[in-house]
Write a structure and sequence with these properties.
Layout lengths: L14 H15 L5 H25 L2 H11 L6 H13 L4 H10 L3 E3 L31 H15 L3 E8 L2 E7 L6 H18 L30 E3 L12
Parallel strand pairs: 1-4
Antiparallel strand pairs: 2-3
Helix pairs in contact: 1-2, 2-4, 3-5, 6-7
């Protein structure tokens, strides 16, 4: 599991990383609280990260804003968070030019059921998310890998919350939260299973799950789903229903 206390916020390059880091930091501060309190703490951290970013963009010289935004938004960020960033910038009376930069640089993505070529396997509904946003960033093509990892971890380390199951540097990034520390044997099992899943993700297309002949350090795509002609495709959160909330 990640040790978030050692992560220096300013050394994180993307807004996605910063949002998750600060949200998780606030979550760990109330680890023993009920689910509603933990969720509220995470949301507070997310809002703080968004507010910090808006202030930093406003303070940056005009000629530095565009390259800074490109770096911060180089990883997909859910539309809800982009809307929050836009709202914070407007509260700060950001110039139209800056709002346009943010809008044009934001990576777009679709849900798997909105892309006919994507893997349609749903995430295991028994996956317990530490917060709702943890289930919005899983590449559609990696769902079978995540589901297999989840089942293995439940068998080896017991009940746990998933903090994130997303893509970083062309491979699966998966971390969990438990109400008690792992034993030595559980930690060995956790590392073994996650390493197997990460290795599998390096060979599977993020969109369809098909074999990738040449993995790279940015995106893992097959020949049929190159980026950017095929946008990012995400799996619906665990337990999602067409007639329920997205």
């Amino acid at each position: 599991m990640d040790d978030y206390d050692t992560v220096e916020y300013e050394h994180l390059h993307t807004l996605s990383e910063r949002v998750h880091s600060l949200g998780t930091s606030r979550l760990f501060a109330v680890l023993g609280a009920d689910e509603a309190t933990r969720a509220a703490a995470y949301r507070t951290g997310v809002a703080e990260a968004i507010a910090r970013e808006a202030a930093a963009l406003m303070a940056a010289p005009a000629e530095r804003r565009a390259p800074l935004v490109r770096v911060r938004l180089s990883e997909p960020l859910h539309q809800d968070l982009l809307d929050q960033l836009d709202h914070e910038l407007q509260l700060l009376d950001a110039p139209t030019a800056l709002l346009d930069i943010v809008c044009s640089a934001a990576p777009s993505w679709r849900w798997a059921d909105q892309h006919p070529g994507a893997c349609q396997t749903p995430l295991d509904p028994t996956i317990d998310l530490a917060q709702s946003s943890a289930g919005r960033d899983t590449p559609a093509g990696w769902v079978p890998i995540v589901n297999e990892l989840h089942r293995g971890l439940v068998a080896e380390i017991g009940p746990h919350h998933v903090l994130r199951a997303d893509q970083k540097a062309g491979r699966l990034r998966y971390s969990v939260l438990r109400d008690r520390p792992l034993t030595d044997n559980e930690r060995v099992a956790y590392q073994r299973l996650t390493e197997l899943a990460v290795a599998a993700s390096r060979r599977a297309c993020e969109v369809c799950g098909g074999e990738v002949s040449e993995p790279n350090t940015f995106l893992t795509r097959c020949a049929e789903h190159p980026f950017p002609s095929v946008t990012h495709v995400r799996a619906r959160p665990p337990g999602w229903r067409p007639d329920g909330p997205s």
